[in-house]
Amino acid sequence: MDAKAHEIRLAGLGGQGVILAGVLIGQAAVLQGLFAAGSNSYGAQARGSTCQAEVVVGAEPIDYPHVEAADLFVAMSQGAYDGYRAGTAPEGVVLYDSSLVTPDDGPNQHGLAVTEVAVNELKNKQAANVVWVGAIAGFTGWFSDEVLEKAVAENVPARFLELNRRALARGLALGRELRG
Amino acid sequence: MARALEKYLRPQVKATPFCPGCGHGVLLGLILRAIEGLEQEGRLAWSEMLFVSGIGCAAWIPSPNFKADTLHTLHGRAVAFAVGAKAANPALKVMVVSGDGDLASIGGNHLIQAARRGNDLTVVCANNQIYGMTGGQVAPTTPVNLPTATTPGGNPYRPFDLCKLVEAAGASYVARGSVTRPYDLIDYLSRGLTTPGFSFIEVLSPCPTQFGRRQRLDSAAAMFDHLRETCRYYVETEPEAETPAGGFLLGEFVHGR
Amino acid sequence: MPSRTAQPLLPPGPRYLSGNEAAAEGALAAGCRLYAGYPITPSSEIMERMAARLPEIDGAFLQMEDEIASISAVVGGSWSGSKSMTATSGPGLSLMQECLGYAAFTETPLVLIDVQRAGPCTGQATKVGGGDIMAVKYGSHGDYQVVAFSPWSVAEMFSLTVEAFNWSERLRVPAFLLAEEATGHLRERVDIPETVELYERDYRPGEAPFGHPEADGVPSMPRFGQGENLMVTGSTHDDWGFRKTEDPVVQDRLVRRLNQKVLSRADDLCRYEGYELDDAELVVVAYGFTARAALRAVRLARAQGVKAGLLRLITIWPFCSRPLAELAGRGASFLAPEMNLGQVAGLVRQAAQGRPVHELTQVNGRSIAPRAILQKIGEVL
Predict the structure, then answer these.
(1) Per-residue model confidence as pLDDT tens digits over A127-180
(2) How far apart are CA C343 and CA A169, in angstroms?
(3) HSE-CB of A7 using CA atoms within 13 angstroms
(4) Which chain B residues are Cβ-neighbours of C233 within 8 angstroms?
C-alpha cells in the first residue's frame, strides 16, 4: 500500500449488509497492521432507505477519518449510486453491482456480477455484502486471505461462516480478475 | 430513650431535631429496637448497616443520629442511591428511611421500580401525610379535602395507598404500622429487615406542627388519639372491610414472595 | 500517591473498535466495577458493552429507571467502594445535573461519559453536536469544579477514560469524558496497551473524610462498611460530615476548598498538543472531533504556504489558559472552530490578551469539514 490514505465508500439499501461490509474492511485493515477509520449511517437510517459505510485505510495514522472524496466507491443499489456518485474523487474508481445499477458514462467504472453470484452460486442474496468485501480486497490487494478470513469469522454467526467463506472467495476472484 | 440504645447513637448528637409531638423520634427508637432485637438473635449486625435517606424531616432520622454509615442524599433519590450502594457491596444491609413526599412524590418512580426489580432493600416510609419541612404543602398522601398551604380550599385529590402501590409493583414484604402501636412496628421492621428482596414498611407518624393544626388536632396528644381511633387492623379474611373515615388499615399485607 | 500498574482486560495489540466500545474497555481497564445507566442515543453502546462485560468480572451493571436514578446509583456505588461510572447524551446530561452537584459537593469520585449530540432539547438525537461544554461545568447550581477531557480518536476514548478515572479518584471530583457522536460511533484502530497506570483512591484511616487542613487539600476517601460510620450529606458539612447549615464559615471554607483543590492543580491537569505552532501566525484552537478536521486543514494551509498551526485542547475543564497566553504573547491570532456557538471561543478570548479570536461555529448536526476550516483560515489571514 502507498503512503496516502485511501477513502472508500460503500452504499446500498438498508438491509443489504452495507455496514457489516464496512466493518469487515476496517477490521481486515487493522489485522493487516494498517490503520483504518470507519463510520456509517446510524439508527433508523441504517434500517431503511439508502445506507452508507465509509472506511479510510492507510499505512500511517489517519488524520481526518471521514470520506471527503471517495477513491473507491462501491454502489450496491441504483439509489445508492445516484445518491453518492458525485461524492467520488475525480480519479476515483466506481465498482457497481452489474445486475442492479445502470451507471452514467463517466470513466473508471466497473460492473461486477455480485448479486448474480450470490443468488445463483451461493444461493443466498444476503451473502452479497461479503462477496463485495472479497471483491474490494481482491481489487486493492491490501489484505492477505488469512486476515480476511479472520475478520469474517469474528463478525458473522457461526452457522453462516461456511457460506461467507465461499462468498469471500468468490469476491476475491472477481476483484482480482478486475485488477488483472 | 433507653440507655441500652445509646450504643447506636453518635455521642456528638444531643437531641433529635424534631418538633414536640412529632412521631419521627418514636420511629427512630423503634428502628433501633428492631435492630437490637435482631442483633441479639444473631440475625443482623449493626456494623453491616447502611442507612440511606432523602430530603425532609424523616430523612434526619438516621442522619446524623445513627452511629453507622449514613448517606443523606438528594430529594427523592434515596432509593436509587441505595440500589447502587447495595450493588457495589452486597454485604451491606441497606435501609432507606424517608418521608412520604420524598419517597412517593418526587421519588415515586424510584420506589416502584426498585419494588419491581426486587432490589434487596428495606424501605421505611414515615408518612405524616403532608410536606412538613417546607411548611405544610399538599402531599400525594394528604387526605381529600384537607386544607394545606397549597390547597387552601381543600385537597381536591385522592391520596396514594402506598402499601397497595408497592405491593402491586412486586414488593416482597409490605406492612403498615403506626407509632401509636410501637410493638407491632418493631415486628414489622424486624421482618422487613430479614425478608430477602424489597421490603416496605409504611409508618404513620403524626406531624402536629403542619398536619395536626390543619385538621384542628392542635396537640400531639390529640393527634395520637386520632390515629389510634381511626386505624383498624387488617384481617386477611375480610380484606375489603371499610376503614374508619380518614383512617388506615394496619398490618402485614405481603409476607415474603 | 497510591498508584499501581494494571493490565487491561483486553489482550494487548491493535483492535478495530468503535469509540463507545473503546470507552467501555478503557473504563474496565481503569478498574470500573459499577455501571448504572439509562439508554440514550448516541451513547448506548457504552452501556451495552458494560452490560456484557461487567458480569464477566463480578462487576455490577444496573439499568436504572432514568438518568437521575443512574447517577444516583453511581454515587451510592462509589461510596460502597467501587470505581463507578455512567454514560449519557443530551437530555440525559440535563437530568443528571442535580446529582452532579451532589457528587462535587460530597467529593464523590465518578466518571461521566457524555457523548454529545445536536441539541438543545431532543434536537437531532443521532447527529453530532458539541454544545455541552458549558453544561458539564456550569449545569448544576452553585460553584463547583469538574474535570473534563475531550477525545479526538477512538484510541483516546480508551486512554482518556482511564485518565478520567485516575483524576476522579485522585481529586475526589466528578470527571467527564466529553466525547462527541462522531467519535463515539467512529470505528478505528486502537492499540490496547500492555499496561495502564492507575490511581487508586486514597484511604487514610482516622483522617476526616470531608475536610483537609490545607485550603486545596483532598481528604481521605473511605467507603461504607469499613467501620468509619460515615456521614455523607449534600448539605453543607464539617470535616466529619456533620450538617452545618447555618454556619457561614464552614460554608465558605468548604466551597472554596472544593474549587481550589481542582484549580490549584490546573497545570497538572492541563493537557494539549501543538502542531506546526513554532512560526504560526494563526493558531487554530480545536478539540475533540473538530481537531481532526483542523489538523487536516492546517496541513493543507501549510502546503499553500500559509503559516497556520493547531493547538489541540485535550483538557477542557479546568480550562488551559497558559498555552493560549504564551501564543498570544508571541503575537499569534486565533481561530476556534466549534460545533456550538462559540462556547470555547469565549474562553480563548479571555486568555488571548486582546489578540484577535475568530470563530467558526456550526450547529447543523454535522461535523465541521476540513475545507470549511481551510476556507476560514484564508478569510481571516
Answers:
(1) 999 999 999 999 999 999 999 999 999 999 999 999 999 999 999 999 999 998
(2) 52
(3) 15
(4) 63-64, 70, 72
Q: B142-176 pLDDT, tens per residue?
A: 999 999 999 999 999 999 999 999 999 999 999 99
List pLDDT tens digits, range A12-65.
998 899 999 999 999 999 999 999 999 998 766 666 688 999 999 999 999 999
Compute the residue count for chain B: 257
Who wins on pLDDT, A1 or B191?
B191
* pLDDT per position as a tens digit, C251-305: 999 999 999 999 999 999 999 999 999 999 999 999 999 999 999 999 999 999 9
Distance between C184 CA and the closest CA of chain A, angstroms: 10
Q: What is the CATH number of domain A6-179?
A: 3.40.920.10
Q: Beta-strand (E) ranges in chain A?
A: 6-13, 35-40, 50-58, 70-75, 88-97, 109-112
- The CATH topology of domain C273-380 is Rossmann fold (3.40.50)
Mean pLDDT of B239-243: 67
Rounded Cα distance between B243 and B231, Å, is: 7
The grid coordinates of residue C14 equal 491493535
Domain ranges of chain C: 3-199, 273-380
C156 CB neighbours in chain A (<8 A) are: none
What is the DSSP track for C23-49?
Answer: HHHHHHHTTEEEEEE---TTTHHHHHH
Is chain A in touch with chain B: ≥3 Cβ pairs within 8 A? Answer: no
Contact B173, B195 (CB under 8 A): yes
Residue A15's CB is within 10 A of a number of other CB atoms, namely 11
- Type and span of the H or E element at C336: strand C333-338
Residues 6+ apart with CB under 8 A from B158: B144
Whether B252 and B188 have beta carbons less than 8 Å apart is answered as yes
A146 touches chain C (CB under 8 A): no
Subunit contact A37:C299, Cβ cutoff 8 A: no
Contact, C161 vs C111, CB < 8 A?
yes
pLDDT of residue B41: 97
Q: Using 50, 70 and 90 to split pLDDT, how confident is the model at B233? A: confident
Q: Which residues pair with B255 in a beta bridge?
A: B173
For the CA atoms of chain C, what is the radius of gyration? 21
Q: What are the residues facing C115 on neighbouring strands?
A: C179
User: Mean pLDDT, to the nearest integer, of C106-117?
Assistant: 98
- What the block records as the C-alpha cell of B69 is 454509615
Q: What size, in residues, is chain C?
A: 381
Looking at the partner chain, which of A30, A33, A65 has a beta carbon nearest the beta carbon of C15? A30
- CA-derived radius of gyration, chain A: 15
Q: Which residues on A lie below 8 Å from C185 (Cβ)?
A: 39-40, 42
Q: How far C206 CA sits from the closest chain B CA (Å)?
A: 15
Domains of chain B (ranges plus CATH)?
Answer: 18-255 (3.40.50.970)
Q: Which fold has domain C3-199?
A: Rossmann fold (3.40.50)
Q: How confident is the model over C34-90, as pLDDT tens digits?
A: 999 999 999 999 999 999 999 999 999 999 999 999 999 999 999 999 999 999 999
Distance CA C75, CA B84 (A): 7
Question: Same topology for domains C3-199 and C273-380, yes or no?
Answer: yes
User: What is the average pLDDT score of chain B?
Assistant: 94
C-alpha cell, B230: 381511626
Read off the C-alpha cell for A84.
Answer: 453518492
The 10s digit of each residue's pLDDT in A81-93 is: 999 999 999 999 9
